[in-house]
Amino acid sequence: MGDVAQRLAEIVGANQVLTGEDIPDHYASDEALVGEVNRPAYVAKPATSAEVARLLGVATEHGVPVTARGSGSGLSAAARPRPDGLLISFERMNAILEIDTVNHVAVVQPGVTLSELDEKTAEVGLGYTVYPGEMSASVGGNVGTNAGGMRAVKYGVTRHNVLGLEAVLPTGQIIRTGGKPVKTSTGYDLTQLIIGSEGTLALATEITVKLHPRLRHGATVLAPFTDLDTVVRAVPTILAAGLEPHILEYIDALTMAAITYTTGLSLGVPDDVREASQAYLVVAMENREPDRLEGDVANLGELLGELGASDVYVLDGGSARKLIEAREKAFWTAKAAGADEVIDVVVPRSAMPEFLARSREIAAKTESGVAGCGHAGDGNVHLGVFQKDPEKRASLLHDIFAVGMELGGAISGEHGIGRAKKEHFLQLEDPAKIELMSRIKHAFDPAGILNPGVLFD
């Protein structure tokens, strides 16, 4: 152990290596509600891609498992290190290297947070549009999990907004994939292969992201419905109308009550309407011109009434901002309410009513509770699961995941598999695909040092 620590210190400097009891607790965990918490044997904080490459060389030589960490805000236990492992923290690699206003891209290091990038791009009227609900999250972490968020209905998830990477392979080689061009048809798309691989294939050390113009005018509409099925059945019609919302969320009544109570938020919904409502749609729209926005809001309000909304409320700026912020923090609300797990199954939009109905039936059979909200515009359902018994909870989750896959969806839409959902993934996914993924993993990482235990055994 002393020899490895010395080698790491020679690369990044003795003051940038932590071992044993000197490692703070926060390096041992991410925000997943389940799974073991392990303090790693070593923490190293590189400042350059070359240092990352040399760290991986030492890890390969000594057979030390490696876990990468950005801000530690992930929800799948993919950023949790092994007790015998090396945690590479990208907190020092946090520079915004370039904001290119001609090509509408930014080039950043992986430790840059979303809030830092948002602040800098706002100065030139541009923005990075991936908002997974935690602005302290790092861009590198977003790449690892292919993070999404509420704006994905219009702008897509991380993989739709990353054009290129510099990445370090576990063999110590540094590669560049993609770049500033917006399209390529030149060999395998290694950028997209690395995105969402949860630190098992390579470590991104530089990221080129798309930027979009910031639209100055926005409005948020809240529509209560008397039942959840009517809410989710309304979503395809709204999208087909060509209104192009950049946020289209459903929130069930229990979750809405929780987030408004914890934030002290009053939305102006009369008591009788609130008491009769089982779910809500939150629709946010934006435009360059205020008149066009006003027309879109009027058309949306009329359409929502036709689709069964009890009423339609255009929220004032302060209330709208607070509601969106509260929705972004729904995970923390569920955690505070005692949720034992939070999942993010994704299904085709048309399958959302059946998925939610069958999930409620499965939960009732096991005397469990499920409540939540979701990105209705892209079929990503976030459920807080309330079941203290680990065996019952595992069975419940397995059955819910199986239903999602049966309906043409996937176990995770944006949180990733990590360690938390690995067993379900391995049992439910096509064995041929698992075998192919394993061969890809071996091609990138023949020594098997990168995040062992994540995705695969």
TrEMBL record:
The keyword Protease does not apply. The keyword Flavoprotein applies. InterPro entries: FAD-bd_oxidored_4_C (IPR004113), FAD-bd_PCMH (IPR016166), FAD-bd_PCMH-like_sf (IPR036318), FAD-bd_PCMH_sub2 (IPR016169), FAD-linked_Oxase-like_C (IPR016164), FAD-linked_OxidoTrans_Type4 (IPR051914), Oxid_FAD_bind_N (IPR006094), Vanillyl_alc_oxidase_C-sub2 (IPR016171). Residues 35-214 form the FAD-binding PCMH-type domain. GO terms for molecular function: FAD binding; oxidoreductase activity. Keywords: FAD, Flavoprotein, Oxidoreductase. Its cofactor is FAD. This is FAD/FMN-dependent dehydrogenase. It comes from Saccharomonospora marina XMU15.
